[in-house]
Write a structure and sequence with these properties.
Oligomer: single chain
Largest sheet: 10 strands, mixed
Mean pLDDT: 76
Number of helices: 2
Distance between the termini: 187 Å
Order of helices and strands: HHEEEEEEEEEEEEEEEEE
Structural class: mainly beta
Low-confidence stretches: 29-37, 39-44, 168-180
Radius of gyration: 63 Å
Shape: rod-shaped
Length: about 300
């Protein structure tokens, strides 16, 4: 009995060992069956829900560009900027002549030709048509109402207003002059020898000429520290003619006078009114003077200066 139990125990142990060995051997799978063709019209079964939820990915090793491709080392091109609108050119300014430096101071007639006395700053000059002046000017024409000057660098005409007498007709034959006409003309001053500071006084320029005097440009000069020019007027000799003047505060007076022409015997040429400023020895003189007659310039003696004492 005991031997039978031992035999039965060994059988159980041997069976357990065999079962354990069988579980350790690899499991043999049956070969895959041939794929069965799906009948036409049959709808494929949807994928498993878990697999369908996963995102699709590209396969590993997908090339991203050309392997060992060429490469340009040139700098990248800058895109062209839009062109700005064209800027309008500034308007063209026409050239202009400088301010006119001359003014008409009087008129003279020489050999039947009208000549004009022009003043510039502290100078006076007698000009005729065609003369060239300082500053690039040329005398283009002389008319009774105006004098035309041309600024030659630009060819621009400029007009000076004037009240000139018409040109006299030329004489066919000059009449013989008496011997007395050859005597030079005389100019002299007439005025007080002593004046008081602050009280105006008059000084007259007297003219004596055996030849008829038609016109005369002249320039006066004085000490502006002692005298102040208050007024300038034509004397009786040119009362019915043309008379112009300009006072320079620096101490000079420009005068242009013209008339019909007449002989003069101690006649008043012009009268100047002065106001004495302070005490001292004041002097008035003719810086330049030209006497014009019907046949040209009249010779005259140099006039003496006028002097007066100013007292307080």
């Amino acid at each position: 009995m005991a031997a039978r139990k031992r035999i039965f125990g060994w059988v159980i142990v041997a069976g357990g060992a065999a079962a354990a060995a069988a579980s350790l051997l690899p499991t043999q799978t049956a070969p895959d069956a041939a794929p069965v063709a799906k009948p036409q019209g049959q709808v494929a079964k949807p994928a498993e829900p878990l697999l369908a939820a996963l995102p699709s990915r590209e396969g590993i090793g997908q090339p991203r560009g050309e392997f060992l491709g060429s490469r340009s080392w040139a700098p990248p091109q800058t895109p062209a900027r839009p062109q700005a609108a064209p800027v309008a050119a500034p308007p063209v300014v026409a050239p202009a002549a400088p301010p006119m430096p001359y003014r008409v101071a009087g008129q003279v007639v020489h050999d039947g030709k009208a000549q004009v006395v022009l003043a510039r700053d502290d100078r006076v000059l007698t000009v005729r048509e065609g003369d060239t002046l300082e500053g690039g000017y040329r005398v283009e024409s002389i008319r009774a109402d105006r004098v035309t000057l041309v600024y030659t660098p630009l060819g621009i005409e400029q007009h000076l207003s004037a009240a000139l007498t018409p040109e006299p007709p030329r004489a066919v034959a000059a009449a013989p002059q008496p011997a007395a006409d050859s005597r030079p003309a005389q100019l002299r001053w007439e005025g007080p020898a002593r004046v008081q500071a602050g009280n105006p006084f008059d000084v007259a320029l007297k003219l004596t000429s055996a030849q008829a005097v038609r016109s005369s440009p002249l320039q006066l000069s004085y000490d502006a520290k002692l005298l102040e020019a208050v007024a300038v007027r034509a004397g009786g000799f040119f009362a019915d003619g043309n008379f112009t003047y300009r006072v320079n505060p620096g101490g000079s007076i420009f005068v242009g006078a013209s008339g019909a022409g007449a002989v003069a015997a101690d006649a008043e040429f012009l009268i100047v009114t002065f106001r004495p400023i302070r005490s001292g020895a004041a002097e008035l003189k003719l810086s330049s003077v030209v006497l014009q007659g019907a046949s040209g310039r009249i010779v005259h003696e140099p006039p003496a200066a006028f002097r007066t004492a100013i007292v307080q």
